[in-house]
Amino acid sequence: MPWQSTDLAASMGGIASKANDAISQVQGGLNKLNNQVSQMKDNVSSAVSAVSSSKGALDKLTASGFYMVTLSPMKGSWSSRLSSAANAPPNLGFCCGTAVITMAPDISTVVNAYQGILDAVKKPMADASNIVDQFDFSDFIPDEEPEDLFELDESEMAAKDWGDIFTTDEWSATTLKDVFGGYAEGLALATNKLSKATKSALASVNQTGRAASAITKGLNATKALMSRMQDTGVYRIALLPGPGNYLQRLRNEPGAPSSSPQFYTSGFVCVTVAEAMGALTSKYETLSSIVSGG
Q1: How far apart are CA 176 and CA 170, in angstroms?
Q2: Can you give the pTM of this predicted structure?
Q3: Distances (CA, A) of 63 to 51, 87, 90, 286
Q4: 126 vs 123, 193, 229, CA distance in Å?
Q5: What is the H or E stretch that residue 100 is in?
Q6: Burial class of 221 by CB neighbour count within 10 A (0 to 12, 13 to 18, 19+)
Q7: CA-to-CA distance for 219 and 212, rounded, in angstroms?
């Protein structure tokens, strides 16, 4: 092939091409990074709003003014047990709340139902992340790191000046690594970066696998809880804000459970009382958002 009059970039097109590719990749990476920063800022803004909203909801939950009674599993009329319970809320003219009552001819049914009620109110399921024990990796077997991912000695692959390894104006036996040292060094650096990235990816695979294992356990436990809840028959009422004594209203609402003393009963009642209807609105909305999702 004849000599050509050209420039250095064109005369070493492979090296120039690699350099241009590197510039393009770095610029593309920078563009993506800037986009990610912008998206992350938006996410942070949204997260701050969500935190503020969540704290506002917690403020409502921590507001006082509710009365709670639990009916442990035992034989007897639910309404009689409520009327005889100590420290009953006063009758201020208006009330609202919720009640869940289970009743059966045998004690085991109401015991199981009562335990299901306790599990349901104690399980922190306000968010999907809460159902996972993130440290429960007992069932997970990680993938081992392949031997091919050993890293090269970069100091051995570093480019050297021609004057340090070749005699000027004299032929020398050599390797392409010595002639094109920058290319070889770049390839070694890229290889190590790829090895590190692959190790990182493998670590991510294992980390994701561990997370999947933990999620599976948490999901199964929560599904079991939901199954128990669906298999447990109860009487439930949403006592809207209105006039009257809470116990009288519970007894008189349509579909109220039997007050026969021959049944075993368990459950809970949570109510709030006020001297005016308007004082109950916000409290009932908070209560309803929990038990009814409204």
Answers
A1: 17
A2: 0.54
A3: 18, 20, 18, 10
A4: 9, 41, 17
A5: strand 94-104
A6: middle
A7: 10
CB distance 265 to 235 below 8 Å: no
In tens, the pLDDT along 19-64 reads 777 777 777 777 887 787 788 777 777 767 766 766 766 676 666 6
Ramachandran region, residue 253 (left: φ > 0; alpha: ψ -120 to 50; beta: rest): beta
The whole-angstrom distance between residue 168's C-alpha and the CA centroid of its chain comes to 66
Residue 122 three-state SS: helix
- For 66-88, write each residue's pLDDT tens digit: 898 989 999 999 999 999 999 99
Q: 292, 257, 258: which is closest to 270 by C-alpha?
A: 292
Instruction: State phi, psi for 255 to the nearest 5 degrees.
Output: 80, 15
Integer CA distances (angstroms), 108 to 81, 174, 227, 229, in order: 19, 88, 18, 16
Query: Looking at this protein, which amino acid is placed at residue 225?
Result: L
Q: Report the C-alpha gap between 284 and 291 in whole angstroms.
A: 10
Are the beta carbons of 151 and 192 closer than 8 angstroms? yes
pLDDT at 166: 83
